[in-house]
Amino acid sequence: KPIFLLLLIGSLVFLSGVARWYGKQPNGILFMQAQSHVATTDSALCLTFDDGPSAHLTPLLLDLLKKHQVKAVFFVNGIQIEANPQIAQRIIAEGHQMGNHTYQHDPMVWRSKDQIRTDLLKTDQLIRTAGGKDQHLFRAPYGDSFLNLPLVLKQLNKQYIGWSVEPKAQYETPFSAPKVIQQTLEQLHPGAILLLHDGWHPETAAFL
To answer: Per residue in 116-139, pLDDT tens?
Structure first.
């Protein structure tokens, strides 16, 4: 019996680890379909920015996007909307789309469905306050979508947006714009969803 119990516990831990690994993949989410690219043969991509809006970087990004008449998707944190309400309003006013990235960028793993629902609805309300009329897009912090999160997303009729291009150099210090550009170009393809971050490095605007 002790051996059987150890095998059972070991199997559950292994399966849990595999499921969580799958849930952290760009298009991996249990119980629902993730969108990690756009079906097109055109030379086009979707720009997405996580973790904003930020006071020091978002205005630079918005200026650049406006100059080139490009629209993007900003996956925002509710706490950042509260800290930068005018910038959040500018995102919407200039025609960009806003997606839910949770209130405080906390991991959703092992949280109860009620906790997740409260977090997401709070952020939805802040997006509405900024002028956003559509709150159906969602991306998980750290890309971790394990356990209760997909069940809540289905209940709230949200669409999970993954990505297909993620230049790892954007996380490095010091930040090297040429290296980020090189890694991005190596991964680009028609309909790619590009994962960038709003607030990590001011040099992101130089890369973009």
So the answer is: 999 999 999 999 999 999 889 999
State the Cα–Cα distance between residues 125 and 2, nearest whole angstrom. 51
Q: What is the DSSP string of 18-53?
A: HHHHHHTSTT--TTS-EE-B----SS-EEEEEEEE-
Q: How far apart are CA 81 and CA 55, in angstroms?
A: 10
Q: What is the pLDDT of residues 150-191, one digit of tens each?
A: 999 999 999 999 999 999 999 998 889 999 999 999 999 999
CA angle in degrees (0–180, nearest 5) for 89-93-99: 65
Distance between CA atoms of residues 126 and 98, nearest Å: 11
β-bridge mates for residue 195, sequence order: 48
Please check whether residue 28 is in contact with residue 117, taking contact to mean a CB–CB distance below 8 angstroms: no
Show which residues are catalytic: 50, 197
CA 46, 195, 38 angle in degrees (round to 5)? 35
Q: How far apart are the first and last CA of the chain?
A: 60
